[in-house]
Amino acid sequence: MTKANNFQRIRELNYLQKAVLASALIERMLPNYGLFSEATGFGDETVLRSALNVCWEKILLPKSKIDLEKQIEKIEPNVPELADFDMFGTYPAIDAATALLSLMHGLMAQDEQELINISKISQATVARFIEYQMTVEGEVADNKAIREHPLMQYEMDVLGELIDFVEAMGRVTSDNVKELKKHVLADGQTNIGLTL
């Protein structure tokens, strides 16, 4: 039997598992925003950080009176406009903010599709970064080259490992969420391979 692909496996997770997986992926994307913010002086990473913490809380305490709408209002002014910045780092920053907004909309509407999209956003960030690097180096960045690039292979491996971890969690508790967060940041790098 062939191993189900990652996206198929994500679709088979339950709602809470999808939510913790999505949050874990954003943990790997968020530092890209921080690096962009540091470099440009635009945006406030702490706003996004605290919004992500609120999402983790909402997942663990679904009945809590957490106002995600208010968090979304705080994040929106911190999303950079592509036209305002002439640097590649704008893309991963936008992707991190977009993924976080998707997570919040997904949690508010209990919309699993929004949660699944986050793994696609993360992968798209990696693909764009590889394409950018290869183009700078004068290489042809076709789909095959991007798919076989070590960074994309790594993204797929990490996603597979995170899915394994989430599948094995059983019930989502604060303890196994702590473990998951530790696991996500253990390699010390963002989804595009930048050191934390």
Q: What name does CATH use for the topology?
A: YP_001051499.1 fold like
CATH class: Mainly Alpha
Helix content: over 70%
Mean pLDDT: 95
Shape: globular
**CATH homologous superfamily name?**
YP_001051499.1 domain like
InterPro entries: DUF416, YP001051499.1-like_dom_sf
Protein name: DUF416 domain-containing protein
Pfam families: DUF416 (PF04222)
Outline the secondary-structure elements:
Layout: H1 6-12, H2 15-40, H3 45-60, H4 68-75, H5 90-109, H6 112-136, H7 143-148, H8 150-169, H9 174-185
Key structural traits:
single chain, 196 residues, mainly alpha, YP_001051499.1 fold like, globular
Characterization of the model:
This protein has helices at 6-12, 15-40, 45-60, 68-75, 90-109, 112-136, 143-148, 150-169, 174-185. The protein has a single domain (7-173), classed as YP_001051499.1 domain like (YP_001051499.1 fold like), CATH 1.20.1590.10. It is an all-alpha fold and 196 residues long. It starts with 5 loop residues before the first helix and ends in an 11-residue tail after the last helix. Helix 3 packs parallel to helix 5 (90-109) and helix 4 packs antiparallel against helix 5. This is DUF416 domain-containing protein. Pfam families: DUF416.
